Amino acid sequence: MTAKTVHVVITRQDGPFSEPYEEAFRVPWRPSMNVISALMEIRRNPVNQDGVETTPVQWESVCLEEVCGACSMLVNGKPRQACSTLIDSLEQPVRLAPLKTFPCERDLMVDRQRMFDALQKVKAWIEIDGTYDMGEGPRMPESERRWAYELSKCMTCGLCFEACPNVHDRSTFIGPAPLSQVRLFNTHPTGSMQANERLEAIMTEGGLTSCGNAANCAEVCPKEIPLTHSIAQLNKKATVYSFKRFFFQ
User: CA 114 from chain center: how many Å?
Assistant: First the structure.
């Protein structure tokens, strides 16, 4: 009886400036196998389906439980998290490729610096100087805490960037996740002290007006974050802020 195998076709790239190419592998199947498990089999025995020894495939992963967001890639053409994508749920051959929105570093590894720069632009953090104990922070009303917690699940995986048609190499759009983080930090009692600065940041080029409302981002988000709802709420906040700025400054 022939052992069951998984047919994996990987789009590989030897370096940032190399041309991509495809390489196929056959790995032993086992129950409850995820994409990361298949990649680990290839790394353990880097021999392609033609029996030729090759270089181990490079990819990123840390937590292996859909928390860190590092293992984002295209799985059969769809942006997915490799750790939570089960092989048995996929059509074979399983085709793996790096995200196209970000520059490829090598094989399935990409440089997500664009996303981190966007988070820095909108000040997606709470400013405290850390020089003394400030005591317990202010409490959020439960009605706000519940939905804010959903926004805080963002793990900067970059899948929303990949799915968004407005994020590409000719666009300055900061992307869905950073916009959602603006709403999160502007809601926080301490973070709201910089609310106007964040609104100013998303009202410039590449901000709110660059969103085409395709809603692809919410569809692919592994954490089911209501990204489009956050963007709609930010549009309302930005409109009110722009009127106040015009009439009272």
Answer: 11
Split at pLDDT 50, 70, 90, the class of 2 is: low
Phi/psi for 120 (5° steps) reads -70, -40
Beta bridge partners of 37: none
Nearest to 36 by CA among 53, 57, 14, 22: 57
pTM (whole model) above 0.85: yes
- Fold annotation for 5-110: Ubiquitin-like (UB roll) (3.10.20)
Q: Which fold has domain 113-248?
A: Fumarate Reductase Iron-sulfur Protein; Chain B, domain 2 (1.10.1060)
Q: pLDDT tens-digit profile of 183-208?
A: 999 998 888 989 999 999 999 999 99
What is the per-residue pLDDT for 137?
76
Give Cβ neighbours of residue 148 (< 8 Å, ≥ 6 apart): 140, 184, 187, 188
State the Rg of the chain over Cα.
21
- The reply to whether omega before 141 is within 30° of 0 (cis) is no
CA–CA separation, 149 vs 83, rounded Å? 23
Q: Between 1 and 185, whose confidence is greater?
A: 185
End-to-end CA distance of the chain: 79
